[in-house]
Design brief:
CATH architecture: Sandwich
Shape: globular
Distance between the termini: 23 Å
Largest sheet: 5 strands, antiparallel
Oligomer: single chain
Strand order of the largest sheet: 1-8-3-6-10
CATH topology: Jelly Rolls
Number of strands: 11
Helix content: 25-40%
Order of helices and strands: EEEEEEEEHEEHHHE
């Protein structure tokens, strides 16, 4: 699991983002992000602290104004495979711009506390959080096996 604190971005010009890893985010403070599948069709999503979002994987998305600080967590393919009931190949989850899960929120808060402390527990702690998160089951979305 990779953990990164992403500050608000003052850039208002829409830009195209493509992520090749599976990642989700927890908002650290209230704010909003403009998302869309087309540059001309951005939709504003308002977030409260603790709200979660699951990013698209391999599919580009347009991002406009992003005025919310959030913690971005990259989930390894090994963790996705381990929790996907025998899927083979690459596991891809359906994106969700906004969702809530109290257990996942608590695990992300623990990862954030570890990050703020400088990761004193090391890799083992993050690997344990990644496994405990059990992303496909926690989010309640089906995993898609890809060859």
């Amino acid at each position: 699991m990779r953990v990164q604190l992403v500050p608000p971005d003052s850039d208002t010009e829409p830009r195209h983002w493509v992520r090749h890893d599976q990642a989700f985010a927890m908002m650290v403070r209230p704010g909003s992000i403009e998302w869309g599948s087309k540059r001309s069709a951005l939709e504003k999503f308002d977030y409260a602290a603790g709200d979660l979002a699951l990013c698209d994987r391999h599919v580009g998305e347009w991002v406009g104004l992003m005025n919310v600080q959030h913690l971005q967590l990259g989930i390894s393919d090994a963790a996705l495979m381990a929790s996907s009931d025998g899927a083979y190949g690459e596991v891809e989850l359906h994106p969700s711009r906004k969702f809530a899960d109290l257990r996942l929120k608590a695990l992300v808060a623990a990862a954030r506390a570890e990050m703020v402390a400088g990761f004193p527990s090391g890799r083992l702690f993050l690997d344990s959080v990644e496994q405990a998160a059990d992303i496909p089951r926690r989010i309640g979305l089906s995993a898609l096996a890809k060859d």
